[in-house]
Write a structure and sequence with these properties.
The chain has 97 residues and is mainly α. The protein is built from 4 helices and no strands.
C-alpha cells in the first residue's frame, strides 16, 4: 500500500510543472487580448497605437498556440518528473512515443 501511495505522489509531482504553465499562459492570453483589442482604444488612448495592438495580438496568438500543444507539454513534462536519472532521455522518449 505504501508503494502505491509513493507512486501516486511521484506521479502528482510530475504533473506539477505542466500544470504550472496553464495560469501563465492564461495571463498571456488575457494581456494579449487587452493590448490587441481595438475596441478598448476608445477608453485607453494608448491602445490606439497599431504597434501595441500588433504586439498584443502576437502575444495572444503565441500563448494560444502553446495551449493548443498542451498534450505535447504533458508528454514531455510527465516523463521528466517521473525519471530519477537520464531525464533528457525520458523526455525524448515521451515525445516520440
Amino acid at each position: 500500500m505504501k508503494q502505491v501511495v509513493n507512486g501516486l505522489q511521484l506521479f502528482g509531482k510530475s504533473l506539477f510543472a505542466p500544470i504550472l504553465i496553464l495560469p501563465i499562459i492564461g495571463l498571456f492570453i488575457a494581456f494579449g487580448n487587452v493590448f490587441g483589442n481595438g475596441n478598448l482604444a476608445q477608453y485607453v488612448p494608448l491602445l490606439e497605437n497599431p504597434m501595441i495592438q500588433n504586439v498584443g495580438k502576437f502575444i495572444s496568438s503565441s500563448a494560444v498556440s502553446i495551449l493548443q500543444n498542451l498534450a505535447l507539454i504533458f508528454a514531455v513534462g510527465i516523463p521528466i518528473g517521473l525519471a530519477k536519472k537520464d531525464k533528457g532521455y525520458a523526455a525524448l522518449t515521451g515525445l516520440v512515443i
